[in-house]
């Protein structure tokens, strides 16, 4: 993570955790939209060693997923995206542990957790999810079939009083959690499941 060396106090960093099995244009789209709407300095793609809720079968080795993600980012020419296997180096699997470890390492960086709308629906299945919402502000980007469902989800209801207007999205990294924003913008249809299916993989 060479570009991490260029981190300066007060910088804002979005964390996009994912399996990236494989990385695709949907990840790039969400990342570009979040960089701008949230006024972030960087977005780190945290290539997960293994999502605790997903089967390991059909999961490409983490090194291969990182390499493919780096190639996609390099081809995109988008500055500000850092692909990292840091969860392996931190020995964390659960997002709550990753976020706490990153905050402990980088006291003066303002982190925001990014996710597509589908992930907000499953957030209540994550380890210590309520505590996670008190550790880091969260931004949710639209995704086909899930945009409205996310807004009506149990996690959205729980965070209703902590939800910012889209017009205040650029403040998200600077407010104390819990804080949530639903971003608005065009949906992108790409999904790793459909890419694997088109390749004849599981
Ligand atoms: N097209 C998309 N639009 C919005 N968010 C997306 C899109 N694709 C992925 N994301 C978000 O990126 C993060 C990482 O996603 P992930 O790597 O699991 O890709 P995926 O396409 O959802 O994979 P799979 O189909 O295997 O579940 C998640 O928060 C997910 O919601
Ligand atoms: O912490 C948890 O319990 C947890 C459960 C499921 C998923 N996550 C995280 O959610 C992110 C998105 O995962 P995925 O596989 O849907 O791309 C990734 O960073 C995972 O580690 C985290």
From TrEMBL:
Pathway: Cofactor biosynthesis; NAD(+) biosynthesis; deamido-NAD(+) from nicotinate D-ribonucleotide: step 1/1
Keyword list, A-Z: ATP-binding, NAD, Nucleotide-binding, Nucleotidyltransferase, Pyridine nucleotide biosynthesis, Transferase
Enzyme Commission number(s): 2.7.7.18
GO biological process, one term: NAD+ biosynthetic process
An annotated Gene Ontology molecular function: nicotinate-nucleotide adenylyltransferase activity
Pfam families per the UniProt record, alphabetical: CTP_transf_like
Catalytic activity: nicotinate beta-D-ribonucleotide + ATP + H(+) = deamido-NAD(+) + diphosphate
Function: Catalyzes the reversible adenylation of nicotinate mononucleotide (NaMN) to nicotinic acid adenine dinucleotide (NaAD).
Family designation: Belongs to the NadD family.
Protein name: Probable nicotinate-nucleotide adenylyltransferase
Organism field: Parvibaculum sedimenti
């Amino acid at each position: 993570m060479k570009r991490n060396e260029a981190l300066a106090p007060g910088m804002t960093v979005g964390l996009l955790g994912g399996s990236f099995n494989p990385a695709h244009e949907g990840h790039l789209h969400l990342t570009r939209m979040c960089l701008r709407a949230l006024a972030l300095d960087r977005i780190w793609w945290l290539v997960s060693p293994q999502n605790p809720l997903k089967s390991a079968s059909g999961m490409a080795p983490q090194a291969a997923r990182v390499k493919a993600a780096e190639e996609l980012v390099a081809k995109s020419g988008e500055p500000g995206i850092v692909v990292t296997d840091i969860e392996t180096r931190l020995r964390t699997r659960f997002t709550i542990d990753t976020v706490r470890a990153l905050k402990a390492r980088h006291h003066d960086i303002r982190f925001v957790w990014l996710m597509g709308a589908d992930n907000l629906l499953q957030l209540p299945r994550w380890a210590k999810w309520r505590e996670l919402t008190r550790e880091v502000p969260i931004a949710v980007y639209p995704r086909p079939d899930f945009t409205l469902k996310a807004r009506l989800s149990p996690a959205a209801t729980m965070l209703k009083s902590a939800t910012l207007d889209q017009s205040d999205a650029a403040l998200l990294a600077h407010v104390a959690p819990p804080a949530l924003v639903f971003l608005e913008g065009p949906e992108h249809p790409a999904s790793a499941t459909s890419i694997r299916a088109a390749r004849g993989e599981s």
